[in-house]
Amino acid sequence: MAEAERRRARTAEEFGALMGLMMAPEPGQAMPAPYEPRPSDVIITPYGKCGTTWLQQTFHQLRTGGDEDYDDISRVLPWIETAHVHGVDVNAEQRANPRGFKSHLSYHALPKGAKWRGPDGGFLRGLDHARPAGQRLLGSFAQLVGGARQS
Fold first, then answer.
1. Mean pLDDT of 77-97
2. Which of 100, 99, 95 is nearest to 67 (CA)?
3. CA separation, residue 80 to residues 24, 37, 147 (Å)
4. Fewer CB within a 10 Å sphere, N or C end of the chain?
5. Which residues of 128-151 are buried (b: 16+ CB within 10 A; e: fewer)?
6. Selected residue with higher pLDDT from 115 and 22
7. Is the pTM of this model over 0.70?
């Protein structure tokens, strides 16, 4: 039997079926190999609904000099947790280097070994730029939020 064409959902039923695939492979399909990070990999991991897809687009444009030859950004800069839905091997080479990935995993659940950009770095830079000249930030982001994230 031929493999079904992979494309965006066009109906609520198709969307529901794709959402179900995000958490488990189709019956009889092997689980994909776990992501193996490289030191040069970049993981884009802000909070959900904070511009993750926009950051994927920006990152891909910068690393390729403007490549727009794809139907879904998640095929060229995959979401680690759901790459198998798009038939993407997260351990394969990508169109350009560094390899890039999207994730909404928590800091502690992210695979170790890659570079990542989460909300704290941008938040601290924003605070630093907003402070009056000559003043320093008091403490780290973890101290600011009560030690919620520990490295």
1. 87
2. 95
3. 14, 11, 27
4. N
5. eeeeeeeeeeeeebeeeeeeeeee
6. 115
7. no
Query: What integer is the mean pLDDT of 75-85?
Result: 85
**Residue 98: pLDDT above 90?**
yes
Judged against a pLDDT cut of 90, whether residue 97 lies above it is answered with yes
Q: Say how many residues make up the chain.
A: 151
SS (H, E, C) the chain: CCCCCCCCCCCHHHHHHHHHHHHCCCCCCCCCCCCCCCCCCEEECCCCCCCHHHHHHHHHHHHHCCCCCCCCHHHHCCECCCHHHHCCCCCCCCCCCCCEEECCCCHHHCCCCCEEECHHHHHHHHHHHHCCCCCCCCCCHHHHCCCCCCC
